[in-house]
Queue: 3 jobs
Job 1
Amino acid sequence: MQLHLDQIIAETPKDRHAVLILDRAAWHTTKKLKTSERISFMHLPPASPELNPTEQLWRQLREDSLANRCFEGYEDISISACSAWNEFIEKPGAIKKLCSRSWVNL
């Protein structure tokens, strides 16, 4: 997480401010993170997966490719997850459609 923050801070122009919308995972809320005055955190409410685009992506992968299956082991899970991801990203605009919100203009 610290490497990610460092990258965002490095890429944010001096006259701009970045806001990160985060869930409440332990690595997002730890006091060990070094931040900058040019970056703020906005934490999602607890138990709100519908607001987290990553959760929407996982839901889609489960529905399309990963649900109702038995896996042979870790390697099978890894290969299946990678295959599901690769199929998903081959669909033009799939990520933007699934993860964008009308109230965010990027």
Job 2
Amino acid sequence: MVGDEQVRAQIMRPRPPVGLIAAECWQLLASVPVGRVVFTMDALPAIRLVNHVTDGEKIIIRSHLGAAITGRAIGGAIVCYEADEVDLSRHTGWSVSVTGSARLITDPAEAVRYLHLLQPWAAGDKDQFVAIEPQLVTGVRLPGWCC
């Protein structure tokens, strides 16, 4: 059996990544509860793991008033949001990135709506909501190996 595995390993090749259209990207983002938000802090990149919901073509995250990302949203900073899913045994998966402006949700009715849709995963008073409104949506699917 070892010989068969060696032969299979020699002929198996990774397939090239496949680009995704925006509709596929949004469908995949809606299928997972967590991702990473990337922004600048003290002129350096900063990354935070957060849970999210999608609302149409917006990503909503929940935070608190003193959080770094909340401060960036008050100023309308450009941020990037990335989520993915990977199957390590099959070498398959996908990754989606959304780049756009972050804004603090200040409308009370909108905030109440998200209060029910998005439960925080981390302890603490998470009473602020940040919307990431896209300017660029890209994604890639890793189709795994073939012969």
Job 3
Amino acid sequence: MSLNQTRAGLAFAAGLALGIALYAPAVAAADDSTQGGWVDLSKLDAWRGPTTNWEVVGGTALDSKNDRKLTAETGEGVVYNGPTGRAVNLISKRSFGDVEVHIEFMVPKGSNSGVKLEEVYEIQIYDSYGVKTLTASHCGGVYPRAELLPKYHHIDKGYPPTANACKAPGEWQTLDIVFHAPKFDASGKKTANARFVSVKLNGESVQKDLEVPCPTGNNWRNQEQPTGRIMLQGDHGAVAFRNVRARPLD
């Protein structure tokens, strides 16, 4: 083959490859935020603004001078509600119906937070380490109904966790939740209550197949919906979160 023929052949091959690249269907790049059906909620941009007083840090630990506070180190991967332990509640941009949720959290001594499915069905996060008599206000409990006036108070006992699996303050802990949203027929009539199919704290079952007939806390009169956003409570005490993710089940 002559030199000119070789050059012509190479030019044809290059043109053919370019044509294939131009007209072949695009292949979407893998989205790390939805691997395996999981939606990554670990970064602040997964939550609606404002995210006032939340900080992105590399890690947290108990404050050596005050075990009711957390300290933080520079970096990424953890969000916490700042040195004051007070921030706005985080509300996800995305809504969910039936959902599986994984959360890793850290609280100092005596601190209080929570995760609310559809913003109204709360699993309590609390420093319950060593507690013998559990109430619904302890970690893994389904929070009681409550009234705001004349002073905030509970009007039932909620659903206490069935075991105390809480670790010591300053340790990372996990919550794994399988939640089924309430169901409605075409006319909007509710046909099934919300249900916590499974709640595990640090791998131990603390709620199982628990039907919840109405929202919790002072939301109990709210109109229920088939979908809603996830809320992480940030205004009741110091808390840090990492590896937060949700997987739709419907």
